[in-house]
Amino acid sequence: MTRPEASASRASVLVAGCGNTGSQVLPLVVLNPSVGQVIVTDCGFYEPQDLGRQMIVEANVGQPMSVVQAQRLKALNPDLDVIPLQRTVEELPLGWFRVDVILSNVDNLLARQALGEAGMRLGVPIIDVAIDGKSGLGRVNGYASDPDEACIECSLDPDRYATAGKRLPCQAADAPSTAAPLHAGASVAAWQASETDKLLSGRAELSLLGRQLYFDTQHHQHFVTRFERNPDCRLDHVRWSIEIIDTDPAAMTLADLFALEVAGTSPTSIAAYRQAFLRRLACTGCAWQGHPTLILQERLPVEARHCPDCQEPVIGAAGAVDYALTAADVSADDLAVPLAAIGFEPGDVVTLADGDWRRHVQLGHLQSGKSR
Fold first, then answer.
1. Least buried of 241, 262, 307, 310, by fewest C-beta within 10 Å?
2. pLDDT digits 0-9 by tens, 153-180
């Protein structure tokens, strides 16, 4: 597995979420001698109510969560390669997930789905944790990201999918929190760090992969159950073979992608990993529609996400949302636009297709915080 410019001899770990559990597992991970790189991602900012419930001090209030934690980690281990990303996991290029272990500390199902699919496509194990501080309950889930094993989505029913769009602290100032005390997060963080150590030290047979640890701190009980693969799972459980091409999205156009030849075949359609192409924007609250454009849905600039007339959120206009593009779908002008202007970044994965033929390519290499 090729990691994001990480050392070949020491492990790379991605930690998603810097709240109660995330802020407590991070120092345990960085002090593990097997770890050489930590990628920290969270879209949020620390707020006053986080004091006493997350590993921060008053001076951190108002600061980006990933940056605060990255600074803590560098203070603990100056030799560590730490990469803070102020992003949601849904918008991250797939290339960032080319690590040895993914630690999920996120607070919503959409993020967990994104982590689950990234792990499956790349074959990266996931340790996913959650707590309920009010009841003293915690859980630690291990997913091998093996096509033959259960994934994060295998246990989801239609009702759970119906609530998947609910977003918590990153999207709303009045969002509910777990209200969990630090010790509740510390309990699952310790388990998560222990499972990480097993995976990095070649003791996967002792790990929770394929199982759930569920514990009740108030009544001193714990249970371990095994996940079953769901044959009707909405995720297709396919691991991808991805070729990394040496290119810069700022120097490559859509026309160049359509002209790209892989194994003697050029694509007739292209798709971006977990992204839709928007060709026109429309307001959800009024009749406003934007000028024709071409942009990846998750890369829409923040300033363009609300209507200029009524400030309500905008979405792709009816008939102007595509999950795959053919050359006939876009104008000659759009074909000549650099991929970066559409929202593509280094590390993004594009699926090239022609009938039943499929190839997955990653656009360029990711740069870490160190020069290598």
1. 241
2. 999 988 888 777 655 443 344 444 556 7
Residue matched to tokens 């006939």:
328
How many Cβ atoms from other residues are within 10 Å of residue 178's Cβ? Answer: 19
Kindly list the structural domains of the chain, giving each domain's residue range(s) and its CATH number in brackets, ordered by start. Answer: 11-226 (3.40.50.720), 242-363 (no CATH)
Tokens of residue 223, six digits: 């249970």
The label of the residue with tokens 């070729």 reads 243
212 DSSP β-pair partners = 141, 225
Residue 358, CA distances (Å) to 122, 252, 352 in order: 16, 20, 6
- What distance in Å separates the CA atoms of residue 287 and residue 307, rounded to the nearest whole number? 10
- pTM for the model stands at 0.90
Q: Which residues of 212-240 are buried (b: 16+ CB within 10 A; e: fewer)?
A: bbebebeeeeeeeeebeebeeeebebeeb
Helix ranges (DSSP H) in 100-227? 109-122, 158-162, 182-200
Residue type, 365: H
